[in-house]
Write a structure and sequence with these properties.
Structural class: alpha+beta
Number of helices: 5
Mean pLDDT: 77
Radius of gyration: 25 Å
Helix content: 25-40%
Order of helices and strands: EEHEEEHHHEEEH
Oligomer: single chain
Number of strands: 8
Strand order of the largest sheet: 5-4-3-2-1-6
Amino acid sequence: MTWKSTGDEGREITVYIETWFDVDKKFNIDTASDDDTWLNMYGRYNPFDDTLRIECEISRQDSSSYFDYEPTKAEAQLIKDMIEEKIQEDYHQTPTGVLRGILRRRSDDWRNTMTHYIYPQNLKAAANMWLWSLRDFAIMGVAALLSIVILVELHLMLPRSRHTLLWVS
């Protein structure tokens, strides 16, 4: 989850919500059939009014479509609690306190300083693919490529079966 203060007057916190659930089933959409299609979820939290809006974007290679989602009370409370917990942990303030500080400063550079990545580990986590690190994947790919080159250069071939039939015409 990432967050930054947005809105005309700095009264909202916008978060990117990672979707670790079956979005196709939850929203009755189809993203799984196309590798170039995914769902982006954004939450807009106004701690002054205690409101949360969820905006969804279905991104495709050549287009995008948008829809709003009304979270259940439990979902909304979970997201609000996560936002408040992370802001308290990092800034020792409530979301309203952070936004009030932004409203007081009204400088242009706050957008650069207020972006914070909540998960995974402030985007410093190792990238994994099927429980393998990307480094392991790269090493295996290079080893496989070298093996193929060596086999071709040494003219080594896989053993042929004794039962191969020869057709003579």
